[in-house]
Amino acid sequence: MNEWNHIFKLDPAKEISDEKLDILCQSGTDAIMVGGTDNVTYEGVVDLLDRISKHPIHRILEISRMNAVTPGFDDYFIPMVLNSKEKKWMMDMQHQGLKEYMDYLDFVNPIFEGYCILNEEAKAFHYTNSTMPDVEDTLVYAYMAEHIFHLPIFYMEYSGTYGDPQLVRQVKNTLNNTLLLYGGGIENSRQAKEMKQYADVIIVGNSIYTGFEQALETVQAVKGK
């Protein structure tokens, strides 16, 4: 993961044709992530996993619903929402999940990620009862992710809205060992290149469904293929 640049994120509640899914998997992206907020079901996750598994691509499940967890992914990303007002999104949900799946931990790769949701219009922002951080708050969350919780990932989630490149730059300068992932609003090559200047990995999701060809171009933009 330290050498990754780009991830496509698929929402199991949204439709994507086999043809487009095959193109994504063969695009040169480093991984396919499955995750979403609304209407995430076990059946939807399994369907995407089965279709993705036809290709030699790294598969990640970002867990947002316990009842949608399924075996077969290469990694399981577990968000810890640092700017939530509720402790359950930082500790209780993770405790519940580990308690339920403890017997399987020897066979899977759970990766905890410090999550900071930076779009107050996003469904995930409301779902997790988050509070909007200012610049100082965001930098402190990044520091906490690396130096207090020793998390391997800090994820700046703008969820459909293009974020502030300068804030991403400031966060990157705060981190030494924790990887910085950026997701939100990347719709074209220019935005992909801009955010990749600072983030270790960019995540492209919504534009898969709204502007497929431009979403594809983001791979070449950051990997130079």
UniProtKB/TrEMBL annotation:
Keywords: Lipid biosynthesis, Lipid metabolism, Magnesium, Metal-binding, Phospholipid biosynthesis, Phospholipid metabolism, Transferase. It catalyses: sn-glycerol 1-phosphate + all-trans-heptaprenyl diphosphate = 3-heptaprenyl-sn-glycero-1-phosphate + diphosphate. Transmembrane segments: none annotated. The keyword Transferase applies. InterPro entries: GGGP/HepGP_synthase_I, GGGP/HepGP_synthase_sf, GGGP_HepGP_synthase. Coiled coil: none annotated. One of its GO terms (biological process) is glycerophospholipid biosynthetic process. Signal peptide: none annotated. It is an enzyme of class 2 (transferase). One of its GO terms (molecular function) is metal ion binding. Its EC number is 2.5.1.n9. This is Heptaprenylglyceryl phosphate synthase. The lineage of its organism: Bacteria, Bacillati, Bacillota, Bacilli, Bacillales.
